[in-house]
Amino acid sequence: MVHINGKDEAAAGMTVQEYLEKNEYPLQWIVVECNEQIVPKEDYATRKLSDKDVVEIVSFVGGGA
Predict the structure, then answer these.
(1) Residue 51 in domain
(2) Which of 9, 13, 44, 53 minimizes the number of CB atoms within 10 Å of its CB?
């Protein structure tokens, strides 16, 4: 299991890009951290997720007053 944003998910073996596309994340508005290291966007297609990885997906939200 891969721990993604606080939940265990069966994503081991998937690339970061496959996971993001499957879950409809907007690629242009997010940053992915895996095991406390930011994954460069150019590595999304090749970086495979492994059992016990800890992943945080952060999205940017615009706004202001």
Answers:
(1) yes
(2) 13
